[in-house]
Amino acid sequence: MKIIVLGCKGQLGRCLNDQLVNTDHEVIFTSREQIDITDFEQTKNQILKISPELIINSTAYTAVDKAEEDFEKADLINHLGVQNISEICHQLGCWLIHVSTDYVFDGNSNIPYKEDDKTNPQCVYGKTKLKGELAIQASGCKHIILRTSWVFSEYGNNFLKTMLRLGADRDELSIVGDQIGCPTYAQDIARSIVEIVPKLNSRKDNGIFHFCGDQSCSWYDFANVIFDQAMTSNSKIPSIVNAIATSAYPTPAKRPAFSVLDCSKFKNHFGMHPSNWHNGIGKAISKLKLENPVS
């Protein structure tokens, strides 16, 4: 299959590179230098020229707090750019796999969110991502929208790497303990996408699916698992880790207090299990150690 990966230099894009490199697919990896999705006409011309059978969109404006004051750019990337891509896909008759977020929900539930639960994003990032989802659905293209959450890996900027950096520099850390979600290893997201590609053969695959970590936790819990695994690889970790309330750590963007996603639809439809994020932490730390053996 001829595949375009948009956003190949981002966290998920780099994981997609790792997972697709040993497949038989013809894959064209593009960064913003090759295809800038905010330039609609150039994007259309480039994609039509390649004429793929599948586009995997791993681009996104993910600076959640910055988006609060930069709505136009966030909307351009997360909504209008996605709308343009989905319309091109419809024109070509090709599939679109698009990655979305748990932030489309308000976090007021106390049971895991299913795909058809009411959306009610509370921040600009979540609102623009939801508008992107709706634009894909309205375009009529063949699509899978994969909502995920709390993504981490050995690449890019993410919670795991931030904790390892702060843990090496400080003896005491305070981490939010009253927001609950599911950490997800980006390599597992990429692997799941690669595994469903051969199964994209009918309209019944169309729709929204949830894919995230297999266990819920707080950011505080997540940090402690990271430090436990870092300690086994002789990394420096803080002596004290405190759990604090969200109110003690105000941010410009409101985060969902509870954003656990129910992945049973994805598992039942494609036969794949959620991400084992405990294992993912160990794999990411091992890879980071190989890249930086003195740290």
> What is the count of β-strands?
12
Distance from N terminus to C terminus (CA atoms, Å) equals 41 Å
SS class: alpha/beta
Please trace the helix and strand order, writing H or E for each element.
Answer: EHEHEHEHEEHEEEHEEHEHH
Shape designation: globular
CATH H-level homologous superfamily name of the domain at 2-157 and 183-213 and 260-275:
NAD(P)-binding Rossmann-like Domain
CATH level 1 name of the domain at 2-157 and 183-213 and 260-275: Alpha Beta
Label the CATH architecture of the domain at 2-157 and 183-213 and 260-275.
3-Layer(aba) Sandwich
In the sheet with the most strands, the strands line up as 2-1-3-4-5-10
Number of helices: 9
- What is the fold named in CATH at topology level of the domain at 2-157 and 183-213 and 260-275? Rossmann fold
Please give the largest β-sheet.
6 strands, parallel
The residue fraction in helices comes out at 25-40%
- Strand proportion: 15-25%
- Rg (CA only): 19 Å
Mean pLDDT over all positions? 95
Parts with pLDDT < 50 across at least 5 consecutive residues: none
How is this structure best described in words?
By secondary structure, this protein is of the alpha/beta class. The protein has a domain at 2-157 and 183-213 and 260-275: NAD(P)-binding Rossmann-like Domain (Rossmann fold, 3-Layer(aba) Sandwich). Helix content is 40%, strand content 17%. The protein has helices spanning 11-20, 40-50, 71-92, 124-139, 159-169, 186-196, 219-232, 264-270, 277-291, and strands at 2-6, 26-30, 54-57, 95-101, 142-148, 151-152, 172-176, 180-181, 184-185, 207-210, 217-218, 240-244. The strands form 4 sheets. It has a 6-stranded parallel sheet with strand order 2-1-3-4-5-10, sandwiched between helices. Strand 4, helix 4 (124-139) and strand 5 (142-148) form a beta-alpha-beta unit. Helix 2 (40-50) runs parallel beside helix 3 (71-92), helix 3 packs parallel to helix 4 and helix 7 (219-232) packs across helix 9. The N and C termini lie far apart (41 Å). 44% of the residues are buried.
